Automatic annotation (TrEMBL):
Coiled coil: none
GO molecular function: DNA binding
InterPro entries hit by this protein: DNA-bd_dom_put_sf, HTH_17, SinI_DNA-bd
Alphabetized SUPFAM superfamilies for the sequence: Putative DNA-binding domain
Pfam family for this entry, one: HTH_17
Domain (Helix-turn-helix) ranges: 5-53
Designated name of the protein: Helix-turn-helix domain-containing protein
Length: 64
């Protein structure tokens, strides 16, 4: 079993599209690593990050 989530797995945990998870990683909004050119997210860090963000809502722009 891996110590890392993929961007897709993180997206599934927080109900977010994979490309948004990668965008947040590039912007430094979510803890991450790049291993062999692939985005990887340490499970312990991500689970802690999610717990710390409980009750925090992100404002999104609706497309009209």
């Amino acid at each position: 079993m891996s110590d890392f989530y993929t961007a897709k797995e993180v997206g599934g945990k927080i109900s977010m599209k994979t490309r948004t998870v990668k965008k947040w990683a590039r912007e430094g909004k979510i803890p991450h690593s790049k291993i062999g050119g692939e985005w990887r997210f340490n499970k312990i860090q991500i689970d802690k990050w999610i717990k710390n963000r409980e009750g925090v809502y992100v404002e999104t722009k609706d497309k009209e």
